Amino acid sequence: MTRWEPGAAERLQEAALELFATRGFEQTTATEIAQSVGLTERTFFRHFSDKREVLFHGQHLLTQAFLAGVENAPPDASPMEIVASALRSATTSFFPDERRHRSRSRQSVIDQNPALQERERHKLASLAAAVAGALRARGVDDLAATLAAESGVTVFRIAFAQWLREDEPRSLADLTAEVLRELLALTRDRA
Amino acid sequence: MTRWEPGAAERLQEAALELFATRGFEQTTATEIAQSVGLTERTFFRHFSDKREVLFHGQHLLTQAFLAGVENAPPDASPMEIVASALRSATTSFFPDERRHRSRSRQSVIDQNPALQERERHKLASLAAAVAGALRARGVDDLAATLAAESGVTVFRIAFAQWLREDEPRSLADLTAEVLRELLALTRDRA
Question: Where is the HTH tetR-type domain (chains A, B) (predicted)?
Fold first, then answer.
């Protein structure tokens, strides 16, 4: 018999981050994660394909948040204006300041494991490909779409790393806007 | 007794690409690669830590070619001018047109194997980090150095993919210069 477990995915994620941080990612099993919040292994695997995916569960929603920003940009927006809109949409909806502490815990697990770092790079490469696809669907030519999307994801990645620093008070949305301005200044300079 | 094998590394690389292409990467062993050119497994492992590294052997030299370009840029060059110099240096010295066929064979092996794709992403991330470090050593501030280096590697990656297309006649140096111009045009547009 399958009972519905309200908020099971969130409880499992919370517990997993805690165990990964204290025992290490390699040393923690899916069963232990489930048991630590009074759930079964079976419930765990209803929500996640493996323990690694607990850390990458939000990827689909993050991509959706970027794509919503592409969609909401005005019809006459330039490629980089569309990317700016995607960055605003994703950072505001997906990473409010309440989430910073949890994002820090997640990042410190990833920083200690090369395979997880590779998974994270793969996630960001897929995100860039999805944004480039959405730009092309808006009529942006292939090369411009790829460059704008890749640049947007680079800006996001750099701003995100800064957001996670212990002494950083600015919001991710503000940091992203600042890094984007710096990129534009840099490329407007002699080159 | 260890005999010196002239050009052993190159012969092993050549043989490996051939076997990876015909039998598949997973199905080919280091011993088979060595034997196919009349060398021993021991000779193979003197040159490469494993069969995967045959595909990434040139990474160190590629990084050096980028760094030489950073070094050769005039003292008053802007960050993106320095990156343009790094791209010119790497593409001209490291990827003459004679190398295109071999680069295509290598890429088609990588395209068929997700673990090799991750290794390639890791290589490019390390390259960007090395270029950013060299920019900082020239006095470029941290954020500008990271953004300029990441943008340069993005330009390289996109131009490289185009260079490998079957019907592409332009040199990698020309393609890289074109993609860089497109990036600058894109970010000079409204954003």
Answer: 6-66
Percent helix, strand, coil in chain A (nearest 5)? Answer: 75, 0, 25
Give the pLDDT confidence score for residue A187 in this predicted structure.
85
List the structure tokens of A106. Answer: 């997640």
Q: How far is B58 from chain A (nearest CA, A)?
A: 21
Distances (CA, A) of B88 to A92, B84, B85, B125, B185: 39, 6, 5, 19, 19
Distance CA B20, CA A105 (A): 40
Calculated CA dihedral for residues A167, A170, A173, A178, nearest 10 degrees = -100
User: CA of B4 to nearest chain A CA: how many angstroms apart?
Assistant: 36
Q: Do B144 and A79 touch (CB under 8 A)?
A: no
Q: Which residue of A has its CA nearest to B155?
A: A147
Q: Specify whether A41 is located in the same domain as A84.
A: no
B190 within 8 A of A81, measured Cβ to Cβ? yes
Determine the residue of chain A that is closest to B188 in CA distance.
A188
Report the share of chain A in percent with pLDDT over 90.
87
Cα angle value A29/A33/A37 (rounded, 5°): 160
User: Are A91 and A174 in a shared domain?
Assistant: yes
Domain coverage including residue B127: 59-188
- Interface predicted TM-score of the whole assembly (ipTM), two decimals: 0.86
Question: Residue A191 and residue B81: Cβ atoms within 8 Å?
Answer: yes
* CATH code of residue A75: 1.10.357.10
**Is residue A1 in some structural domain?**
no
Please count the structural domains in chain B: 2
Task: Tell me which residue of A141, A52, A160, A48 sits closest to A103, measured CA to CA.
Answer: A160
Burial B76-106 (b: 16+ CB within 10 A, else e): ebbbbbbbbbbbbbbbebebeeeeeeeeebb
State the pLDDT at residue A170: 97
